[in-house]
Structures are given as C-alpha cells and as structure tokens.
Amino acid sequence: MAAPSPVRSVSAEPALTAELAQKVVATRYEDMPQDVRALARQCVLDWLAVTLAGSRDELARILVDEATEQGGKPVATLVGFATKAPTQQAALVNGTVSHALDYDDVNLTMTGHPTVPLVASLLALGEARGVSGKDFIAAFVAGYETICRVGTLVAPGHYGRGFHATATVGSFGAAAACAHLLGLDAEKTATALGIAGTQAAGLKSMFGTMCKPLHAGKAAQNGLIGASLAARGFTSRGDVLAILTGPRGLVPWFVRRGDAVQIPTHVGALRLDTPAAIERCHDLGLRVDYWVINDVGVARSLLERGADGIMTDDPAAILPAFRTSAPPAPRAEAGGAAPASPTKGS
User: Fold this and answer.
1) Taking the domain 7-318, which CATH number applies?
2) What are the domain boundaries of the chain?
3) Residue 266: how many CA atoms within 13 Å on its side-chain side?
4) Which band of pLDDT confidence, cut at 50, 70 and 90, is reported for residue 97?
5) Are 74 and 83 in contact (CB under 8 A)?
6) Looking at residue 104, what is its pLDDT?
7) What is the pLDDT of residue 42?
C-alpha cells in the first residue's frame, strides 16, 4: 500500500480538473496492485451487506414506492427487493439504502463514506450495460481515487463549514467512476465532473433525519447523471475544481477563507484504503434467515467466500441472491423498537 503522498498548494493550478480527469481515464485494472484490487472487492462486499441490512429501514420502502410510481425502463436492481428500476432511480434508492444504517465504510481523507455513492451508481450503470467485473473494479478505483483527491482539496474547512462530504465530494467520485465505466475521454470526464459539481449539495444540519442517507443516494445519482449527459454532449465548465475563478469556482464556496487548499503531489498514486474497518459481512450469513431471500444458500455462500469470491467477471451475477420475494419489514430490536435511521456520523 502506497504511503500518503506529500501535498502541494494549488493556488496556481488552473488545470486541476483536467489533470484529475486524465488520471481517471488512465486508471487500468491491469496496473492495480493486488492489495488495491482486494480492498476494492472488500468495499463492494461490505456495500452489499450494509445495503441488504438497510433495505429493512422505513426509508427504503418510501423510496421504492416512489420509484415504482415514477415508472420507467426497469434495468437496474433495487437491492433487497424483487424489482428493478431505471438506472438513475436505482442509483438514488440503492445509494440511500446503503447509508441508511451508517455502517458503510469510511475514509478520513474525504471525511466521509466513499463506497456508497460509487457502488450505487456503478451497479446501476453496470447492470444495465452488462459490464465485466474488471471494468467495474477499475471504475470503482478511479472514482475512489477522485473522492480522496477532491476530499483533500476541500478539507478540513468543507466539513467544518457544515457540508456533508459524502454528498458533495461523493458526487465527483460517482461522476468519475461512471465516466470511466462509459469510456469517456478526459475532456468529457471533466465535463461530467462539472455537471456533477453543479448538483453537489448536502447539509450536516440534516443529520438525524432520512435526508442524511439521502445525501449518499443523491451523490450516486448526481454522478451518474453527470457522466451520462456528458457522454451525450451536454456541456458544463471543464474547470469546476479551479480556484482561480473567484466566486464561480468550487473551493471558495466549500471552504472557509484562509484555509489551506492542497492536493496530493503524486496524483497518480493509488491510495485506496479504509481507516474504518470493513464490516464483517460473514456475520450476516448467520442472520440471513431474517430476510426473505430467494436462495438463502446462495447468499450464505457468497458471504462465506468473501471478497475474492465476487466481482471477478460479472457483477450482476450476485444480485439474484439479494432480491427479496416480498417487501422486508423492519426487524424489532430487543426493546421492541425498529432500527432507526442514523442520528450521527460522518
């Protein structure tokens, strides 16, 4: 695992967005160290576990009902439910549900939860397009790296000023990941970042309500919309991360005046890590009977096989085990109350 890179000031970096877009395009599965590949698979496995658990939260039913009523082309799975939705709706629902219980992985570089917006957007897009597991993982790492770099750019003032980085910074990561999966060039990737950036929002004052996990879903949806529209020729500024554009730039609005603004010097260095421990997904296998699963044996087998047993060829192949045949009801805790949405967290 590469050591954290030194940093440099970006006060004279007008081409920052273009540079990061180039790094996204240059990310290749074949160039990734084995430990990075393994961590990426662990992130995906962890995401599946927390999303399945989150599908029992009340907000999941609200969002699924809304998506069903809206209708559209059903091409992407709503994890934990026997239904599909359009890609953008699936990204919103799965991204929100995966953050519902606040047990998803954390990276302190961006002071938030990087995996939730990435997998939610990529799974919707990847399932609709039938992508390979290698392409999925490469896009995930490209998005994860972008989240960390943008997170470093606006930290620590951004979070301290009241913005939820999972929502704001996560939008950029999801856009980068989806742009990579779509095979966009650097120019269109920068455009995708701009489209996602103009949508980026999320207030820490909403912690304790269903809006906190909604932030993750919106980040996934923002990124997917950004990449999809950029692929079709939609325009935006190509320098959304620049700080030389006065009040029009990202950084003046997202950090406090006087805060240092820095990015890693070696922006090509892989820095995939999870300071917060990956949840022990295997434990879920012991409780999987609480859910109405089409094939409990398949689900248990996936969890027992761990990270190396998934995401090798076809990411959509594991989804049938996580589709319920009936809407899941919240399971009461020992005291009789259903699990509540998170009231704190990053």
Assistant:
1) 1.10.4100.10
2) 7-318
3) 8
4) very high
5) yes
6) 84
7) 85
Q: Is the pLDDT of residue 308 over 70?
A: no
In this predicted model, which residue has the larger pLDDT, 283 or 145? Answer: 145
Task: Fill in the amino acid letter for 68.
Answer: T
3-state secondary structure the chain: CCCCCCEEECCCCCCHHHHHHHHHHHCCHHHCCHHHHHHHHHHHHHHHHHHHHHCCCHHHHHHHHHHHHHCCCCCEECCCCCCEECHHHHHHHHHHHHCCCCCCCCECCCCECCHHHHHHHHHHHHHHHCCCHHHHHHHHHHHHHHHHHHHHHHCCHHHHCCECHHHHHHHHHHHHHHHHHHCCCHHHHHHHHHHHHCCCCCEHHHCCCCHHHHHHHHHHHHHHHHHHHHHCCCCCCCCCCCCCCHHHCCHHHHCCCCCCCEEECCCCCCCCCCCCCCCCCHHHHCCHHHCCECCHHHHHHHHHHCHHHCCCCCHHHHHHHHCECCCCCCCCCCCCCCCCCCCCCC
Spatial CA neighbour of 234 closest among 195, 181, 275, 278: 195
344: pLDDT strictly greater than 80: no
Quickly tell me which residue has 């399971």 as its tokens.
331
The answer to whether 114 and 278 have CB atoms below 8 angstroms apart is no
- pLDDT attached to residue 70: 94
Nearest-angstrom CA–CA distance, 150 and 53 = 29
**Residue among 320, 301, 278, 230 at smallest CA distance from 106:** 278
Give pLDDT, residue 45: 87
pLDDT at 74 over 90: yes
